[in-house]
Amino acid sequence: MWHDNEVRFDISHSNMQLQSGELTVDKLDMIEDTKGNAGDLGKLIVTNLRILWHSLSLPRINLSIGYNTFITVNTKILHTITIRTSKFGPTLVILSTEASGGYVLGFRVNPLQQLHIIHKEVSILFSEFRKFPIFGVEYTFEHQASSQEEVNVEHFTEIQDNQSEISNVFGYYFSEGNTGQRKPNFSIHLGLAAEEPRESSTLQNLWELIPSCVN
């Protein structure tokens, strides 16, 4: 599981890429990081797992804030998300827990309408992640495979019953009455000469008892 258990700064390019189970939700350019005195413009990327920001002038200056980390009681990356008025103007502020570094991170987003939109997005994503965390692990239930096996067994049993019934009919036919040879006659149904069946049976009826799969 790759999830951060702390706010990470200046991470490698590979760690800035989308990870397993991660999807981009929003991207914003010209977002000012207000943690410095003068601030720095960069790109803010919102995913379903974390928030990423990197400087436009120096991409190696970046940070990654995960919504949550390992399944541990009270282990949270994001503590609160608020909009505050600072010397930079209305700012998206993220407060992290003491366990993750106790940072106060701010991002100035213009116009104000966009600031409220991004605030709502991050708040919803954070809330959903806490309810349904994604750990990058895919799985299937074992009972899904066993269900198909049970269907095949039932089908096979049905074929066995049909074969038994056919054998019983032929056995009954040849077991009673005179077993001597009868005069062969040409059968239109078969297209060849065959011994005449008993009075209670016809060649067509006997032929229909043989499954079509038998050669």
From TrEMBL:
**GO MF terms on file?**
phosphatidylinositol-3-phosphate binding
What is its subcellular localisation?
Cell projection, Cilium; Cytoplasm, Cytoskeleton
Q: Write the record's keywords in alphabetical order, separated by commas.
A: Cell projection, Cilium, Cytoplasm, Cytoskeleton
| Principal location class | other
Say yes or no: keyword Cytoplasm present. Answer: yes
Keyword Cytoplasm listed? The answer is yes
The BBSome complex member BBS5 PH domain is annotated at 22-76
- Tell me a GO biological process for this protein: cilium assembly
* A cellular component annotation (GO) from this entry: BBSome
A Pfam family (short name) is BBL5
What family is it from?
A: Belongs to the BBS5 family.
Q: What is this protein called?
A: Bardet-Biedl syndrome 5 protein-like protein
Which species is the source of this protein? Camponotus floridanus (Florida carpenter ant)
